[in-house]
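WARN retry 2 of 3 for item q-0093 after timeout on previous attempt; input resubmitted unchanged.
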Amino acid sequence: MKQENLRIAMAQINCLVGDLQGNFEKICANIKKAESAAADIVVFPEMALTGYPPEDLLLKPKFITDNLEYLKKITKLVRDTVVIAGFVDRKAGNIYNSLAVIYRGKIAGIYHKMRLPNYGVFDEERYFEAGENPSIFKLGKCLFGVSICEDIWHLDGPIKLQADLGAKLIFNSNASPYYAGKIKEREEIVKKQARLNNTAIVYTNLVGGQDELVFDGQSIVVDNKGRIITRAEAFKEDLLIVDLDIPVAQIKRSKKIIALTDALPSKNRIGLPKKEIKPLEPIAEIYQALILGVKDYINKNGFKKVVIGLSGGIDSALVATLAVDAIGKDNVTGVFMPSRYSSAESETDARELAQNLGTKFSTIPIEQMYAAYLAELAPHFSGLEANIAEENLQARIRGNLLMALSNKFGWLVLTTGNKSEMSTGYATLYGDMAGGFAVIKDVPKTLVYKLAKYRNSLSLVIPERVFSKEPTAELKPNQKDSDTLPVYEKLDPILKAYIEEDKDLGRIVSLGFDSKVVAQVLSMVDKSEYKRRQSPPGIKITPKSFGKDRRMPITNKYKNK
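OK item q-0093 returned
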């Protein structure tokens, strides 16, 4: 069988939503690198020019116009390397999630995404019209098709249509956000499409953090037998270059075939160095996702330094460690804020953590402030037993102190609440929930321990006692989390079943859990919706996180029985 040899460059880049100039410069730089490597085609992620997801920026006509002007600038720069670039097209008053196929200073064709995701974090039907044109392109003796992200998840979609027209190579540009286990699902569907359609598939994914989303990269090339030929870096920018032998197509006459050139221009090529990227282990993958999410949220929003309330517990220890790994020890400050209920061990552990990490450490006692609050409230609380009101005062004083430091020095406050706490409302509104970014908001407590142990396996930074002592908020004498919550080993599976899998009480009980415990947990989750609505954004690492993934009404009388 005759074959056409193509050198493909996959530009796995980290884009910033709305930064048209910056994204344009990054695209141009990667085009030049691809040209220097004598690539025939360079492909970019979905909506690389605008960043993804631009959300309601898409409702601004000037934003669409500006993005089209930058596409014109890119077009003028393109020579003998075909460029496949993501942008937003406008036609007859509608806008489309699109790919431009550019060659020798002209846009040869534009593909409009045909399958628009409208679930989970995706809201594309709010903005875009679906495309209807599965065109393919002729480069030399090769026919190739282009598609966008969701298109590849449908076996009866554009991939099949393009393969039926004779395409032996499919480019799929993506902005596929990360969650634990997503890479396996993604690779399986790409392999299946390749086998079913007898086509090689070049799957190029976005990388970088964008608000609560993290794009993991991990772009892949799959041959027509469904075998992964090569893969790009995880959670890093990468220009992956690969040589592919594509079967010469039997050209059919069709208006849907757009000819770029009948013969490939000759190029001086040197052999490609072997590059082997092994997939990350699951816990390492999650840890890297959190690092990238923290780093990009801080940097892309113009912050330089962060401040974290250190309690001596596992949650704040993990957040501080992630922050140091993301932006460096000199940019992280830990603050210990003891009250009358804080143990000496907590201060020792918080201080030791800061020393191990090499971060700045301060102690700001809250006892005098707390006593002043209690004195002022005494006439109003007279005759009443102490309860959660007195406990939450301490958390809110600490929140005020961290926000004061933030205002004074321009530091971003990283909150330390985990998914188990956010789910059940075991957190104080305007207290420990106060801050700019909730790093482990989507990380269950049991996973917090696993991530901390993984990080300590790389180098010992989190004190060993932090792992062994029982979790406590230290807001009253001898307090333990288990006074209010089921132990986390039982709580987290119930929360996963209810929040991520939408199981009702009966189905959760059938899994072997006590009905009273399940009813208690579900009630806590439902009653805490108003709190979560006021919490900072946090990094998504599970299939269903709080925020765009799960949009429950606050005012809601439905009972999950």
